Amino acid sequence: MDTRSNFHQSLEGLQADLLNMGKKVEGLIHDAVQSLVNMDKQLAEEIVASDDLVDDMLLSIEESCLRLIALQQPMATDLRIISTALKISTDLERIADHAVDIAKVTIRLSGQELIKPLVDIPLMAEKAREMLVQSIAAYTERDVDLAASLAQKDDEVDHLYGKIFQEVRGMMGTDIEDNRQLIHLLLVAQYLERVADHTTNIGESVIYMVVGKRKDLNV
């Protein structure tokens, strides 16, 4: 096999690893919010324990990227593909960190009854998860329009966060334990808002990879 064929095979392997990481992180976001909705402490603890696996995935992708750069000395488009994979994997790892943060809230609230059924937080999580799926599809398909459309969905997540913030503020009272739970739920909403931001970062990376110009989607 010639050097160029080897290089493209390595790029395909890198993309496959990135897709696997994306699927893993998507599942973590879903499970983290479900652990909170159902007050499932065991599931939350499993999510916290999975953090090392995601870190290992990031490390493996970083090593693959650096190896390709060092051994193949790629130019122009190929270099953008590699650097984009490196950037996306970092955003995915940070999204996974937020899944762990949400799971830790479940553990802290374990044994408590939720003040009210959660409605907007699961909706916010579903929108953020859909954004993540879309961003990975945009990367796979090299679809600039799909990547750019993440901005509108990010606005929807921001709107839900604002709604949750106002609701929590209106429910704050004199009960210390209730207030503490409300603050934790607001933190969960903040984590999900950041998940959406990292997802738009992935969209920006895809646009840069395809056209060689940066576009800010977090505006």
Explained architecture:
The protein has one domain (3-211): Methane Monooxygenase Hydroxylase, Chain G, domain 1, CATH 1.20.58.220. The protein contains eight helices and no strands. Helix 5 packs antiparallel against helix 7. It starts with a helix and ends in an 8-residue tail after the last helix. It has helices at residues 3-37, 41-49, 51-72, 76-109, 120-141, 144-148, 150-171, 176-211. The protein has 219 residues and is an all-alpha fold.
Total count of strands:
0
Domains, number: 1
The CA-CA distance between the termini, in Å, is: 46 Å
CATH architecture: Up-down Bundle
In short:
This protein has 219 residues and is mainly α.
Secondary structure blueprint with pairings:
Blueprint: H1 3-37, H2 41-49, H3 51-72, H4 76-109, H5 120-141, H6 144-148, H7 150-171, H8 176-211
Helix pairs in contact: 1-2, 1-3, 1-4, 1-5, 2-4, 3-4, 4-8, 5-7, 5-8, 7-8
